[in-house]
Amino acid sequence: MDEREFGRSHQHASVVGLGTWQLGADWGDVDDKEALAVLEAAAESGVTFFDTADVYGDGRSEQTIATFLSTRPDLHVLVATKMGRRAEQIPQNYVLDNFRAWNDRSRRNLGVDRIDLVQLHCPPTPVYSSDEVFDALDTLVAEERVAAYGVSVETCAEALTAIARPNVASVQIILNPFRMKPLREVLPAAREAGVGVIARVPLASGLLSGKYTKDTVFAADDHRTYNRHGEAFDQGETFSGVDYETGVEAAAEFAALAPEGCTPAQLALRWIIQQPGVTTVIPGARSPEQARANAAAGKIPPLGEQTLTAVRDLYERRVKDQVESRW
Asked: At 71, is the secondary structure helix, strand, or coil?
C-alpha cells in the first residue's frame, strides 16, 4: 500500500490506517481474539498506521496493540495514541505534570519507551491557544517520551489554530463525504505548513457503508445509541453530526454512486484518500473481513470527475446545512 509522509516529523503512514476505538469500547463487545485478528488482517493488508487512545476501553485498545506487535517484531507500524480525555475537561488539566503521567500510562500500555505520535484528544478549545501547553509537548519530545505530537480536533477553527504552531506534526479531524468543510479550510493550510492530516470517522459511524436503515437498532453500549444528540461527548463524533434519518436517506443515494466492484464504504475511503493534503484515513473494523475490505480501498483507482461531482452535489443538497455551522 502507498505511504505518505507527515511532513514536519518525516514519519510515514499507509494511506489507509486502522482506527482502534472499536477494539476498546463504545461499539459493543469485541473479544480479545477477534481484536487481535483485526490487527493481523490490517497489517497483512499493508496497513502501517494504528490510531488508538488511552480512553479506548480505559487502555484496552493500547494493550491489545502492544500484545499484537510483541508477536510481530517484523512489522514496522507507526502507532499514534491520544491523551487528555481521562481527566475533567478543563484547560487547567492540560499541564506538563499531567502530560507526563498520562504518557507514562500509555507507554506502559503500549510496552514502549517512546511513543511514535501522541495527540491531544479533542481538548477544550482554549487549550489550542496556550503557549504553555505546546511548551509542555515540546518537553515530552525533548525527554524522548514521544517522537512527535499532534492534535485531534472537533472544529476547523481548532485545526487552524494548531497548524500555526511550529512543531505540530499532525491534525486529526473528521473528514468524509458528509463532512467537507475541512477541504476548504484545513487541508490547504496543512499542506502549506507540512502538517499531516489524519482523517477520522471516515464512514460517518458506518452510515456511509450503506448497511443501515431507519429501523436499525444499535446496542445500548454503542455510542450510536447513547450519543446521537451529544449526550456523552461531541455530537459530531456520532454519524458526523448528521441527523440519523437524514443520514440514512443520504447514504442510500451515496451507495448508488459506487463504481462496479467498489462497495459504498470503499467509495467513501477512496474519496478521502484522493483529497489533496490527506496523509492517512483511519476507518475502524470489528472483524478481519472489514479490515481487509477497508485496506483494499487504498488500491482502488482514483475516482472520476463525474463521481466526485455527484458526491459533492449530494453533500450540498442533503448534509451541508446540518454540519457546516457547527464544525
From this structure: coil
Tell me the per-residue pLDDT of 38-86, one tens digit each, with 9 for 90 and over. 999 999 999 999 999 999 999 999 999 999 999 999 999 999 999 999 9
Distances (CA, A) of 249 to 170, 213, 269, 309: 33, 8, 19, 19
d(CA 167, CA 157): 18
Q: Exposed, middle or buried: residue 41 (CB in 10 Å: 0-12, 13-18, 19+)?
A: buried
Cell numbers representing residue 252 in the block:
442510500
List, for residues 219-237, the tens digit of each pLDDT value: 998 999 999 999 999 999 9
- 293 Cβ contact partners less than 8 Å away, ≥ 6 residues apart: 263, 265, 266
pLDDT for 27 beyond 80: no
Residue located via cell numbers 450510536: 224
Nearest to 212, CA basis, from 257, 261, 176, 246? 246
Going by their DSSP bridges, the two strands 280-281 and 196-200 should be labelled as parallel
The span from the CA of 119 to the CA of 79, in Å, is 11
Neighbours of 224 (CB within 10 A): 20
- Interatomic CA distance for residues 146 and 141, integer angstroms: 5
Q: How large is the C-alpha radius of gyration of the chain? A: 18
Q: Using an 8 Å Cβ cutoff, are 31 and 227 in contact?
A: no
Residue in 204, 206, 203, 200 with CA at minimum distance from that of residue 219? 206
DSSP state of 319: I
Identity of the amino acid at 47: V
Q: How far apart are CA 239 and CA 318, in angstroms?
A: 14
The per-residue pLDDT for range 286-325, each reduced to its tens digit, is 999 999 999 999 999 999 999 999 999 999 999 999 999 9
- The DSSP annotation for 109-137 comes to HHT-SSBSEEEEES--GGGGG-HHHHHHH
